[in-house]
Amino acid sequence: MPALAKYPSIVVAHEQSPLLEPEYEPTTNLTMPKLGLMGSQAIRRGKSVPQTIGHRGFKAAAPENTMAAFRAATEAGVEALETDLHLTRDGVVVLCHDETLQRCYGSKAKVRDLDWSEISQLRTLREPHQPMPRLVDLLEYLNLPDLEDIWLMLDIK
């Protein structure tokens, strides 16, 4: 996972639980192999494994909740992506954390008050300037070869 080496503040850690014996100690070594065990399989074996989740993608590498951030997260080797869902006025599901577009896109408008045709023209304030993706864009990306095992956590706003 050489992409993570540029970001030394990222730490991979295991869940803390008195019921589980950790298989790995918390580490900043970001070259660990991709883990095959997930969730209940790890619990049944009595072990806890690190779970890496790209929260809003890899927002240290690209603007949050953009396809660039999700690509950076998967290239870094995450096992899951987390994103936030909002509906546009015309019913398109888009990926945006905030109710308004101010913080990331510089518009005081609310997502629900605009149509997709208007939102699709916006670009993030942060470089590289990215459009707001739709849920369908992320789902299509996760259907690419080698990405089918990445799970998705959706925060419905």
Automatic annotation (TrEMBL):
Gene3D superfamilies reported in the protein's UniProt record: Phosphatidylinositol (PI) phosphodiesterase
Domain of life: Eukaryota
Matches recorded under InterPro entries: GP_PDE_dom, PLC-like_Pdiesterase_TIM-brl
PROSITE patterns, sorted: GP_PDE
GO MF, any single term: phosphoric diester hydrolase activity
One of the GO BP terms on file: lipid metabolic process
Annotated ranges, domain GP-PDE: 50-157
Protein name as annotated: GP-PDE domain-containing protein
Source organism (scientific name): Xylaria hypoxylon
Classification of source organism: Eukaryota, Fungi, Dikarya, Ascomycota, Pezizomycotina
